[in-house]
Amino acid sequence: MIKRSSGILLPIFSLPSPYGIGSLGAGAREFADFLHDAGQSWWQILPVGPTGAGDSPYTSVSTFAGNPLFIDLEALAADGLLDQTDLDGARVPDGDKIDYAALCASREPLLRKAFSHLDGERAQAVRDFTDRNPWLKEYALYRAVKTHFGDQAWFDWPDEALRRHEPSAVERWRVELAEDVAFHAAVQYWFFTQWEELKKYVNALGIKIIGDLPIYVSLDSADVWSERKEFLLDGQGRPCKVAGVPPDYFSEEGQLWGNPLYDWAAMKRDGFGWWIRRVEGASKLFDAIRIDHFRGLESYWAIPAGAKTAKVGQWEKGPGMDLLRVLTSWFPQITYIAEDLGILTDAVHDLRSESGLPGMKVLEFAFSGPDNAYLPHNYTQPHCICYTGTHDNDTAVGWYESATEAERAFAAQYLGAADAESARSALLRCGQGSVAELFVAQLQDYLGLGSEARINVPGVAEGNWRWRLLPGQAAAELAKEIKDMTHAFGRC
Q1: What span, in angstroms and rounded, lies between the C-alpha atoms of 219 and 225?
Q2: Which residues are annotated as catalytic?
Q3: What pLDDT, in 10s, does the model give residues 413-463?
Q4: Is the CA virtual torsion 308, 309, 314, 319 positive or negative?
Q5: Model confidence pLDDT, tens digit, residues 132-186
Q6: Which of 5, 130, 356, 404 has a CA that sits 20 to 30 A from residue 41's CA?
Q7: Residues 121, 100: Cα–Cα separation, whole Å
Q8: Secondary structure of the chain: what % helix, strand, coil (to 5)?
Q9: Beta 359-362 vs 384-387: how paired, if at all?
């Protein structure tokens, strides 16, 4: 069990930085110091892979790779790979929104310049890192080929043998694009070297990192291209059915994610080797792993490929304890959290109970009436994680302002709150004071920010994952306020 404690949810991309997006550099260490001063034991982040469609961290082109945009440019300059002129040119005026298009256009040339300055010793370090991480050879080649073919998805590449990942074609292109392959390998070496240093710093402060493991991977990804046998695809590499969820409290239309579904029967015959490799990679990044869409391990929503809406689909049986038993036994040192939100059945509750994983209680979903399971007085045991809201929720202020009249009326009774500010404050105290072994709030809730600071709106394809913390917002006065509350409820 997790000891009674609390944490704050803040994505890496939301950290303050003079370079347009949060990084693994000074801003991350300053936030870790803030967490320490605020009496927090956990820092929850979102997936850190290279983003795909809609700039979403949940549509990454690799389940193993790190996001190049998070690389600390100042660390590269300290290593002599960039100079002050490069840093000055990369600076972006302070703002609370990320411009991904501008960043993607400007950042890669800068990283390629750094790559051109690698000397023999550091180039050898990259090769050694590549040899220790077999996934990197496939990922670096995938990125190089994708660039070569004008950023086309792998299933549209003109070389059929390469699309099929035939060994002779793979090796031929690996030689032809060797320079570009080496560049992408170097980028990952920088990311993971910097991450390791950051994690040591964070852990030394007594803080652990919670990371997110998306249940699915993108169709256009190095994972699907190089390991098609793990997925339900036709002869051309296209899915017959895709992932999503039916209508629920997040979206009246449901969510049509479009990810390929796993061939769970084949994975089971293989002993779930792909998942073991995946979690092994995540274990190098995180101290605790939140299993995204946990209910999909019991039963998942399968939507016919080409469907226009997620309303069309059916439930199919997931791997259940067959997979969870493997992951918990292979990695006993990892703390797992079940993201058990969505349409839940007795079978999902039974799976979570049998697995022993703590589930999630989201306060913003709680105010339908006194019998709501997310209200703290209904927590039957402390083995759970209480949240004000997740990255898919509005901020506490935004939630109250958009709540129904009935929800506000019940919140007034339960929280003693008559407006957005008093509701925000009461919601934080309600979560801190709950019996849940861990309480997590978005930083925006401690800051009292509204919907302008929302991270994601599920079912909306564009405009998400952009909010940034401004320099100075996570101030010493706020840290003291949070620590006082955390201490009062026995979570320090």
Answers
A1: 8
A2: 292, 339, 392
A3: 999 999 999 999 999 999 999 999 999 999 999 999 999 999 999 878 889
A4: positive
A5: 999 999 999 999 999 999 999 999 999 999 999 999 999 999 999 999 999 999 9
A6: 356
A7: 33
A8: 45, 15, 40
A9: parallel
